[in-house]
Amino acid sequence: MRFHTRKWVKPQDLNPNASLFGGRLLEWIDEECALYSIIQLENPKVVTKFMSEINFKSSASQGDIIEIGIDVVKFGNASLTLRCEVRNKMTRETIISIENIVMVSLDELGKPQAHGKSEIEFVKDRLKD
Ligand SMILES: CC(C)(COP(=O)(O)OP(=O)(O)OC[C@H]1O[C@@H](n2cnc3c(N)ncnc32)[C@H](O)[C@@H]1OP(=O)(O)O)[C@@H](O)C(=O)NCCC(=O)NCCS
């Protein structure tokens, strides 16, 4: 799993119990999955279709640095299934894991569109062509 993005937990990210608000974390994960899918599928029109069980394993506090990791589970026809893990950067303790997040590539009309991809690509390799 590659951990692409780091976040710094700030006062505006906390819930009334002074720990990281779960909704904020899901927002960060959703955006990370969207960016990952847009880059992999080379299509800016990608939506989140499905998220499997969300398991908050530990919490984070103000000032913590967390990192968001993404792995590909499966390339489908119009879909890309991802796995996500968020952990504390310094302690490596897992904060949340989500086993299946299904992102769908769309056409201009908002209908599922085959993406034609079957393996992870790196932008640096595309730029060599
Ligand atoms: C995404 C959307 C176009 C899919 O429409 P649909 O009629 O379900 O399309 P399909 O049945 O052709 O499925 C498309 C793909 O999604 C997958 N899929 C559909 N429902 C799924 C579910 N409940 N769980 C997992 N995967 C699912 C299908 O397996 C298919 O994958 P494949 O093309 O790789 O085989 C439609 O549901 C939609 O617009 N949803 C709203 C998305 C949204 O607004 N998200 C939040 C904002 S980003």
From TrEMBL:
Keywords: Hydrolase. InterPro entries: Cytosol_ACT, HOTDOG_ACOT, HotDog_dom_sf, Thioestr_dom. One of its GO terms (cellular component) is cytosol. Gene3D superfamilies: Hotdog Thioesterase (3.10.129.10). Belongs to the acyl coenzyme A hydrolase family. The lineage of its organism: Bacteria, Pseudomonadati, Bacteroidota, Flavobacteriia, Flavobacteriales. SUPFAM superfamilies: Thioesterase/thiol ester dehydrase-isomerase. This is Acyl-CoA hydrolase. Signal peptide: none annotated. Residues 1-109 form the HotDog ACOT-type domain. One of its GO terms (biological process) is fatty acid catabolic process. GO terms for molecular function: long-chain fatty acyl-CoA hydrolase activity. Pfam families: 4HBT (PF03061). The keyword Hydrolase applies.
